[in-house]
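Re: beginner question about structure tokens

> Can someone show what the tokenized structure looks like for a real chain? I only ever see the sequence side.

Sure, here's an example I had lying around. Input first:
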Amino acid sequence: MIHLRPPRVAALLALLLAGASAAVAAPADPADPNLPRLRKLLAQTPLIDGHNDWPGMLALRAGDARWTMDLRRLDPVTYDTDIERLRLGMVGGQFWSVYVPAELPPVEQVRRTLDQLDLVKSIVARSPESFTLARTAADVRAAHKAGRIASLIGVEGGGQIDESFAVLRTYAALGARYLTLTHSKTTDWADSATDNPRHDGLTPFGVAVVHELNRLGMLVDLAHVSEGTMLDALAASKAPVIFSHSSARALCDHPRNVSDAVLRKVAENGGVVMVAFAPNYISEARRVWGVEQGAQQALYNQPPLNGLYIGQPERAKAAMDVWLRDHPEPKVTVQMVADHIDHIAKVAGHDHVGLGGDYDGLPALPEGMEGVESYPPLLLELMKRGWSDADIARLAGGNILRVMAQAEKVAASMANELPATATIRALDGAEAAP
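And the corresponding structure tokens:
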């Protein structure tokens, strides 16, 4: 999902004056004694991130230029991602998010999804020395061996299939490798984590979507869904599931995060939780502060009729400045992100945790993790905590590669099953939307 954020002027102005490349020149301390160890490890195992909104951010910020612009080096205030920074971050594989706002009419969601799918393919085609389109675990390994970044595609919202198995299969044929079952809104077949529940999880149509994803070899992504939907999908899926960008609820009580009870189910399923870097998913203090900040903003200037200083933008800004002075934003650090990875590894096991930064989709980022160049400091932090090479390799990419390979085996075992064709009304009955 894409959130606009205020420019990070204070952190980056001096670096920008020296040139954009200076802002990303040192993603890791070159004197760190573990850096050679990390370089060797990531030369053998690709670092694979589960979720990056760069295509959508290019569409939002660059407009029609997104089809032709040079992607090697971009303004680091505007974008978290470019080719130079991906290389600095030692990224070997990336699931590019195909995100469409859940509030749009279904037909428009489908149209924009197709546009985003085409954009990802355009990005790959324009930079063949850097990117290779990947569909399978073997594709990812081959791309890494060739020195290229494996580019995979995830569709970030069940509403984007417009309740149509034919649309889902079309996305799969075009290269999509996962479907997030919901985004911010509950659909007619699945409950979202950030909307009122209507189904206590998945409806029969939703279960059929999970089954069809298994048949297609697409991953079932449970980021953004309610806990009821998580549990129903885990029970229904024949293949391991993923959380493409979610964190640990025991450390930050955001409904988008994964509880310990669900983490244990993920371990039983063989799936992987790919830790998101969003400050409001990482720090409980930051999550609460964000809610309070929004409420305060509405108190001072809530259009069209309410707000203490409605129609008085100067007074509203002055009051908000005072509030921010008295309520500074809590810091979120690389170490806090590492805490979530540690927690998931302890509860679910080292075989069930990965990385899902959500770059170019966030209004803010943790200190020291301002872009895709920032994976090495996180992995080096875990090395300092005693993580073994094998554990780092599983976290970086081994776990998601295993999940992909297992999903491919499940799809092969279902090769003789007929494609799903039922409508939502046929499966869910008269209460389903016409």
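Each token stands for a local structural state, so reading them left to right follows the chain. Residues 7-25 have pLDDT under 50 and may be disordered.
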